[in-house]
Each structure stands twice: as structure tokens, then as C-alpha cells.
Amino acid sequence: MLPDNPDDIARLIYLGILLLALVFFSFGGAQRLGGRLRDLAIWGLIFATAMVLYGFRDLIGRDLFPGTAFSTSETSMELTRSPDGHFWTDARIGGQRIDFMVDTGATDIVLTERAARSIGIDPDGLRYSGQANTANGVVATAQVRIPDLTIGPFTDRNLPAQVTSGALETPLLGMSWLKRFDSIEIRGDRMYLAR
Questions:
Q1: Over the Cα atoms of the chain, what is R_g?
Q2: What CATH number does domain 66-194 carry, 2.40.70.10, 3.30.930.10, 3.40.50.2000, 3.40.50.970?
Q3: Which three-class secondary structure state does DSSP give residue 117?
Q4: What is the dihedral of CA 18, 19, 25, 28, to 10 degrees?
């Protein structure tokens, strides 16, 4: 999508002209003017293609990267179902990227030991006093708080979460996170979340 701000559009045009001029004059020497113009046209076409691809990045990205949350506005986002049938999303916790599966069957935000380590939590120093029933059986859990969780346009702070000591393979976003939304709707291969 092209910028809405006229200043940003003007900057893009200026940078495009500057890039074309730079390319045009870099093909100096023995080349004739016709060859320079041909080369300039090729670079112009490459630049225009890049701008078009950038403009359609959300549409292209939904199909190429199903785990990415796409903002549809400041108060809503959509997720695309992955080929395995689940809704996945990439999140940032303390600046670290973590892939989560959205799981309506999970009560809490659940971190694997590896995910906990990546955000600075030492799983070996936790007290595993809770239990969770999973598809793989009962696992011990430890309560933690995560400083922030950013997905799409939303950032939530100081959230309770669980770290499992068991064989959980992927972090989960359960109902404690989903209940923060006013509306959750699944239509076809899309999940729409709004606050």
C-alpha cells in the first residue's frame, strides 16, 4: 500500500528520481545514449515493480506467510489458517520473536522452556507447582509474568503465563489472551480479532 501522507509520496518520488539519475550516470563511458536510455528504462521497470509489490505486500504476505498477523485497522487484525489447519502468529516478547499457535482449548498463554529462555526466563530456576492437561498427558507448569506481548497492532503488558516442563512443542495463546478481544470470528481460512 502506498503512503497516504503527501510528504511521504513526495519523498518516494524524489528518491526514485535520484535513483534513476544515479543509475543513468553510472552507465557512462563508451556507451551510446540509446544504450543508456535502455538501461535506464530497465532500472525504472525494476523500481516500478518493487513499488507495486510493496503496495500489495499485505495481500501477497497473507498467502506466503500464513503465521503473520495482518492489521486491518488500529483495532483489528486477521490471521490466516496455516496448511496444518491451525492459526499461528508470530509475536514479540521483550523484542524476541516467538511463533505461537492460537489455541481456544488452552486456558493461558503457555511457553515452552525454549521460548522462556529466549525471553530471559531461566526454566531451571522456576517452581513447577501447577499442572496442565495436554494432548500428551499431564505436565507440570510454573507461573511467570511476561513484560509485553506484541501481535499485529496490539501490545499487552505484564501478562500472566505458564512455562511447561513437559514435551510441549510450541507456545500457545490461550483464552486468557483471546478474552482481551471484543470480537473473534472465523470465516473460512481467516480469523478476525477486534478490540
A1: 24
A2: 2.40.70.10
A3: helix
A4: 180
In angstroms, the Cα distances linking 3 to 10, 11, 128 are 10, 10, 49
**DSSP per residue over 43-87, as a string?**
HHHHHHHHHHHHHTHHHHHHHH-TTS-EEEETTEEEEEB-TTSSE
Amino acid at 41: A
> Which residue in this structure is represented by grid cell 550516470?
25
How far CA 142 is from CA of 10, 44, 61, 145, 172, in Å, comes to 53, 57, 36, 10, 15
d(C-alpha 23, C-alpha 28), whole Å? 9
Q: What is the pLDDT of residues 26-67, one digit of tens each?
A: 655 445 556 767 777 788 878 877 777 666 655 555 555 555
Cell of 163: 512455562
